[in-house]
Amino acid sequence: MKKLARRGLTGLLIVLLGGWLLLNLLDINQLKKPVLSWLNENTELDLSVGRLEFNPLSPYKLLAEDVRLGDWFSARQVYLELEQLAPLAGRTQVAILDVIDGKLDLEHAQAPALPANLADIRIAELNIQNLSLTGTGWEAGGITLAITDWQPRRNGQWQWWAGASLNGRARQLSHPALELSGLDFSGQLRQNRLELNDVRSRLFGGLFSGSLVLDPSRREVQLEQPQFSQIKLQLADAPVLPEGWRLLLNRASLDNVSLSTSRLNINGIKGELRDLEWSGSGLPDGRGSWQADEATLDWLRLDRHRLQWLGDSERQGINLSGQAWEGSIEAELEWYPDQGRLDINELQMSGNKLVWQPDIRWTVPEVRIHKLNLSRTELLSMDDALPLSIFDGALFITDMAWSAGLWRPLSEQARLEGSVSELVWNSLIARSAHLNARLTDEQLLIDRLDGDWLDGKATLSGSMNLYAPHHTRLELSGERWQLRHLSNWLRAGQGFAGELNVTARLTGEPSDSASWQGDLKLQGQDIFVEQAGLDPWLRNRLGEDYTEPRQVDSALAAWDLMQQDGFFYRLELQGPVQHGQWLLNNSAVQSVRHLIALRGSAGADGTMNLNLGVINDKGCRELAILLRGDWHAPTLRLHQPPLNTPCKPWYTGPVPYPAAGLPGNLIEAVRALPAP
Domain coordinates of the chain in residue numbers? Predict the structure, then answer.
């Protein structure tokens, strides 16, 4: 009996040893081709495998190398360990599935069609190492992922979002608008959502952490209490989301974050965003508060400031305080994107130094100013088309709106007040100037505009209609204006200097020169004019014979005048303005040697009809000069009228005869002078 048992054990050992040798001599890859052919014919997997390792003594374990599914998935190795295979019941339980060095193209990926005996698939442990993903602008590399207790297929249907626990990391995840590296995450798939309780990553040179929920059914991405630190976000174009998706942020923390776009740059942001919701276009809904070191939007610039934001798709509200342009700023603003409207509920700026650049453009279609207050403001324009500088300026505006190139009132309180210590326009300088104005539905009313101008005084009041034909009313008073400043500003071919007083009361329409009515008076003294040698020219004309009226070449006369300079002790031009014509009464100019009286009219359209007389010490005219036509090239006629004895005075106004003038009959006195 013992001998029989010994023989049986020996035989069993021989059988086992022979089976083991047979299995080692058998190449399982010989079965690869028919098995793959059967799989591809029955499952439409388009599967290819480079090498298989399989031991029939361990039938539930398989290692495949160089695996490929169509043109959208490949892996260097796939290890499969089955826990249970029940093809008759359609159940497959996978204990371990390892995918190593895989590549997945999400854009072309397909759900594999499997036979009915693979209706239910449950994976206890899925391990992925060094996976690369591509698709629709996304790229990811170095992905390591562990998923447990996952059932991706049920009742013959794939359910990729079935419940499971997962954790993993990725070397990099990139998109045209996003760049992540060193990504670590853990969470679960639950209720068809990806819930990552802990996400950490390097993002645009900084750090990101928080919780993330990806809900494909509702097309939402939620970030719970995300923290952004030391991030430098650079966006060449505005970020976008896939159509129909929403981004939700709750209590986002910002620590030293920088944002840079083609128009907006913000550095050193610290603060919080709450309840933010963004649909991928337009402006987001939400609220937040933060402080930043600096911010620029086109030509607008803020330095250290604090900001509170509350907005939705229809309205964006901002409360702002801080420093800007070397001064302080406080603002309460509202932006209505659909209307293209900016409401300035309150804006206060003090001690700011503003610089106007040639490329500055204002692109907001409508602005409503409820309260604007600027004080101790400086402005320097670098634009040749706007040669303006302001020192110590103040401006207060309330209840005014600007749109379509026009100002309009928002209430009966619409007004504008301003003052400036010094204003320079080109070479014109105004000092200690003040402005009070009101705006109605139809008119701009200037109650007061006064100051030191041209080293003298100026006062202006009046009104102008906002709409055509822009009827205008002006009252202007100027005292001791120094004309050299005006000469420098005009950069005229003939320089001039002297002192001028102006009084004007006028009404009219700027586009209609014939509509002007009122009174105008100019009083000047010690006036010097380059290339206007009136005294030598008059002496020559008095010495010539014009007993009969004779027309003279005005161009030749102008050339004669330009040979010397002119000096005038006193000038007084006055008279009413009717239908755009200034009617000169009792007007005269006193030069060094002559008194010239004026009668006639000068038009706002540049035409004139002037009768000038060279007056002797008795007030009688000895040389008549008639100027008619356009002032650039008038017709000129000279006449020496006969003098009665006694002569009838032609001028009896307030301008006296010059002390250096020739006494008696001018023509006789001039002709008696020695030749020059």
Answer: 1-162, 513-672
